[in-house]
Amino acid sequence: MNRIDKKPLADLGYGFVTANYLQKDSNEYLYRNKNITQADYRQLSAREISIMEANLNEAENWKDIWVKDGFNPYLVKNCRFFGLIRIGILESCYLEFKNLRMPVGLYNSTIISSDFGDNVAIDRVNLLSHFQIGNEVMILQVNELATTPTAKFGNGIVKDGEEERIRIWLELGNENGGRKVIPFIGMRPADAYLWTQDRDDKALQEGYFNLTQQEFSTHRGYYGQIGDRTVIKNTGIIKDVNMGSDTYIKGANKLKNLTIISYPHASTQIGEGCEIVNGIIHEGCRIFYGVKAVRFILAAHSQLKYGARLINSFLGSNSTISCCEVLNALIFPAHEQHHNNSFLCAAMIQGQSNMAAGATLGSNHNSRGADGELQAGRGFWPGLSVALKHNSKFAAFNLISKGNYPAEIHNPIPFSLLGNDDESGGLLIIAGYWFQYNMYAIARNAWKFAARDQRVEKNMLLEFDYLAPDTVSEMLKARDLFCQWVGDALEKDSQAGKAWLENPTNAQNNLAVWATGIENSKRKTRVAKIHRAYQIFGDLLQYHAAKEWVATCQRNPNQKPIELLNKTLANATAIQTWDNLGGQLIPSGAVADMKNKIKSGNIKAWSEVHEFYEKQAVLYPDQKFENALNGLLKVNPNAIENIPAWLNKAVETSRFLTEGIEKSRAKDYQDPFRLAMFGNAQELEAVIGDLDDNEFIQQSKVNQQVFEEKIKSLA
């Protein structure tokens, strides 16, 4: 049993930085109350002390209680005060938030070395220690609200006199900690991604560590912060927590070592039964109903709900996790996982993703230790009851059908559906699946993610379009692989495969094509619809280039389209490889240059890395057009010599995509099994809506017509 030391009550305030410290320029707090100076306060008068004592208040030393003019001693009842206390204006009024009404004042609480803004309402706080509380804050029924001398507020800091072993790390992407990073306030998914990579580059890894060390002071004794208009009620323990303005906490069990960022226009809320430890929660987040989160970062406007467990993970913005378990994961923005029995472990998911019920990703390790990984590009959708092995890697927009996959998979083909092939007993890839069978879903999701981006501060340029530099590179690689695999099937070389794929008479040919290097097993991998996918990928690359030309002309209305085209062609010398940094696509060469600057010490703070993202965001539209033109010339080397033919193909593809959106959605109205749920077609339309009234489909048609008109202006 630990010995309990006796110490003088006066020592309770020892070692803490007082409110005056906040006047210094420090990165320690994102949120500060109005600067507090001693001149704003005065000591209590003898009459005020007598009123306070008559109201059953006690103080270790009444001289340590300072108040503003406008303080009403009648509004402080049955409280005990220790250490230096500052109290703002208290007026005879009440505060109201939703159904909670509280009279202004301090009631039935034990308060140690804390500062209060104007018109606060504090009642039944068993211990309130070392906090600076803003204006119009409501706190009701809290067991413990305290800040310790070594408070870190969720950051991976080691304070003076502490051992390195107590530092908080996030073990992202790998259970054995081989890709761990140090969390800090304002950390973006791109920062975490960069740090988890290049683990063999010791100089770069040391650079990331040094950047993080520069972010915060190692001094002890910072007060916790509670921003203006924050409401806290019926909560157990809040220890070492900073929270911004308009935070709302109700019924939480335990909140410890956290920063909760919140703004009036993007408030953060934490609800019943939550136990949240060692984390950073950015603005606009919602955490409710029995959530357990330990060692984590939530980016802006993300949600944890209904018993979700998030451990050693980074969740990108505009994401939702509920009812399930996520461990050691780095997840980029726009991720959905809301089924009770899904499991995600040791994974890097690059956003725009959705995990169905029963999906277990990462529960199966194929090595002797828990060091396997899973990596997936944008638009990763594992279906119902999918079980995948470590190590597996997937290109962008891979859909995986229900089933157990017994071996590791590395699928470089984007926009494909993977499943177990009952006919051959092996793996099946339907290449170009989305554009042939479910165009509505992929187009609507690109629109949906952009429309639902709630970020107030859009500090990363997130790419939501399914046609972008990452998928351009993957489609080009896929076409080369198609040529190789078809050549193998013909028992000839890849040139023979290319000739077969480019011959339109082979469209209906049922040539059996087998892929190599996809699955780590003796099973065969069959590629279906390969001829159609080859054609679609080529058409998409031509359409994408025309679309980006239109966009470039819109950005530069005073320049002639042909001049913009020729100018871009002059700079388009080679296909660029791109990195997906937390949802923002950046040329790999630019990223490499930035890394070298970190190693050399030319970049000295994470804020400079963030400036790099912002500068790249400005360059991105022109670079995207350049990349699109490179893709065009790969599939149609004569496009520039015959611009009308290229643009006609782009218009044809645009019509194909728009028609595909409507046709794939129309299947839901024509399915006899779905119609069986209703008495007639009219009832079906009453329940799921009229196809002709579908807003997204109608807008797609308008966009297609606008695109055609703009294409005519280019010719």
TrEMBL record:
Pfam families given for it?
DUF4954 (PF16314)
Domain DUF4954 as annotated: residue spans: 41-481
InterPro entries of this UniProt entry?
DUF4954 (IPR032533)
Give the superkingdom in one word: Bacteria
By what name is this protein known? Answer: DUF4954 family protein
